[in-house]
Amino acid sequence: MTAHKSGDPTTLNRLYGRAKGKPLRAGQQGLVDTLLPRIAVPLEGPVTSELLFGDDRPMHFEIGFGGGEHMAGRADMLPNHGFIGAEPFINGVAQALTHVAGDNGASTPLGNVRIHHGDALEVLSRIPDGSLSFLYLLHPDPWPKARHAKRRMMNDGPVDMFAAKLKPGGEFRFGTDHAVYVRHALMVMQRHTDQFEWLCEKPQDFQVRPGGWPETRYENKARTVYGHEVWYFRYRRK
Asked: Are the C-beta atoms of 162 and 135 separated by less than 8 Å?
């Protein structure tokens, strides 16, 4: 997951965390070499539905999609919507490509997904304001130490950008299993009540995964292996 440096909070001059892990399997490397170039987000210029998908359709953006389970699940549910995902970890990109290709859970190859291997906010900055119907930030790196708080994606600069890119009525979804990050995120979002309405009326609204929110591999492991509680937050752009 990417995070911003101090100073201009929307400018990412550095990626924190891993960019790659264990060597890719031959099939994964093949998808990186052949499929990724065909569905990659252009490295320059505006990022619009017309340019990416050839028509005007609702657009979704996922920051740090991990292995791509959520992105692929949502894209499979909503074939007439366009999905953009950004992830700096090449192993995660390779795993997501298996979903897009229809080889790992998706019922058919997904033609409504575009992927950026790299910094999410750089791509997000090129999306015209008011273009997104949904924006997702699921299980970002918590950076739990106080001195690393500025590295968290949930900070005022990125949240201002989220608000700018979402349509009025668009939805920002955030999920985490880290209690420190929950407190930090709620504090940040409390400063943005002029931009976002928290879609929560009772504790169950953030303690139970909503319908239409596919479970990620990371989330399942956090719950079943480590016994963590997972929290789900939905915010509507005012």
From this structure: yes
